[in-house]
Amino acid sequence: HEKPILHSDQGWQYRLEKYKKKLKDKQIMQSMSRKGNCLDNAIIENFFGVLKSELFYLNEYNSVSQLHSEIRKYIKYYNRDRVRLNLNGMSPVEYRTHYFKNIA
């Protein structure tokens, strides 16, 4: 029941009708940053930089399925266990839980 979203900038390759059709055929929703606004992508660009430096560049993968499995594990680690200084030393899940508990 998952409905994946692919977010990108407005590069010419992402605006091609052939590309849009492939996404639609695979039931992937396309999301684009606003024109001239790179801040829309800043959060995900930062995450991909961290993912590559903490996981991808440190390992070798024998298959796409192995890489896929490792990325899924890393995302769980990133959200649940990896502490962030800008989140007061909490993981993203801990921070959200703490924040929403304290605003109620």
Description:
By secondary structure, the chain is mainly alpha-helical. The chain has 2 domains: 1-37, no CATH class; 38-104, no CATH class. It is built from 4 helices and 2 strands. It has helices spanning 17-25, 39-54, 64-80, 92-103, and strands spanning 5-8, 29-32. It has a two-stranded parallel sheet. The chain starts with a strand and ends with a helix. The mean pLDDT is 88.
**Which regions are unreliable across 5 or more consecutive residues at pLDDT < 50?**
none
One letter per element, helices H and strands E, the order comes to EHEHHH
Give the class from helix and strand content and strand pairing: mainly alpha
How much is the average pLDDT? 88
Count of runs of 4 or more consecutive helical residues: 4
> What fraction, in percent, of the residue positions are helical?
40-55%
**How many individual domains?**
2
Rg from Cα? 17 Å
How many extended strands? Answer: 2
Which outline best applies?
globular
Beta-strand residue fraction: 5-15%
List the helices and strands and how they pair.
Layout lengths: L4 E4 L8 H9 L3 E4 L6 H16 L9 H17 L11 H12 L1
Parallel strand pairs: 1-2
Q: What is the structure about, briefly put?
A:
By secondary structure, the protein is mainly α. It is 52% helix and 8% strand. The chain has two domains: 1-37, no CATH class; 38-104, no CATH class.
